[in-house]
Amino acid sequence: MSSIICERRERIFVVTINRPDRRNAVDLATADALFAAFQSFDADEETDLAILTGADGAFCAGVDLKELAGGERWPILPEGPRAPMGPTRLRLKKPVIAAIEGPAVAGGLELALWCDLRIAARSSVFGVFNRRFGVPLIDLGTIRLPRLIGQARALDLILTGRAVDAAEALAIGLVTRTVPDGEALPEALALASKLSLLPQAPMRNDRLSLYEQWDLDEAAAIRNEIERGLTAIRSGEAQAGARVFAAGSGRHGTPVSKDRT
User: Fold this and answer.
1) How many CB atoms lie within 10 A of CB 119?
2) Which of 5, 14, 50, 106 has the fewest CB atoms within 10 Å, i.e. the most exposed one?
3) In terms of C-beta distances under 8 Å and separation of at least 24 residues, what long-range contacts does 241-246 make, across chains too?
4) Coil, strand or helix at 189
5) E strands, 169-258, in order
6) What is the pLDDT of residues 28-65, one digit of tens each?
7) 119-144: per-residue pLDDT in tens?
8) Contact (Cβ atoms closer than 8 angstroms) between residue 35 and residue 82
9) Which three-class secondary structure state does DSSP give residue 199?
């Protein structure tokens, strides 16, 4: 049985971690498969968004501790695109949505933080559970968590390793929205479908500018935003959208263009 399942749903690419007997904990083979799957998604011009989820009511319980305890040597290098959990160092040109049921803890939390948006079932749980057994955050958790929820809250989670339920996760900005149990993937698919209808070049370039500005000083960030904006304008989608909107379409949130990059 494959440790991940990949499927296309129109222009949406769905990746499911498929190790339910291990609460979808990631072993080396799964990390490699996740890395390859998201590289493939990013290169595929026929898809606009991806969804990362887990099988049978669990998102991901982190690294497979049984494999780690058995002496398996994991690649932990300061450089290169391949991270210990697989894709968490990749900066994709297209968005990824996490559809979370059950635990998203330890390395599973870091996978969720890597995604652009997080939709969580109301019984889902988050936490730096690896604090309890001495495994550090090495999939950019110490970087992404404070950027997402602020340093004080991030320190609370990182130092204590305590559990965070979905209601608190929503309140502190750790997740984007909460849904009834069993509805995380349907909600993520519905959101991805809506985003897929939007003009893609402006959305993708605005998204990349947001991520890239973390590495830049203010002047460089301004230049980068302009360069990204010009790239989007050269795609023709901005002008096409403006013409359609000016002609009376696109009111009340309706997408004004389905042109593809």
Assistant:
1) 28
2) 5
3) 241/199
4) helix
5) 177-179
6) 999 999 999 999 999 999 999 999 999 999 999 999 98
7) 999 999 999 999 998 889 999 999 99
8) yes
9) coil
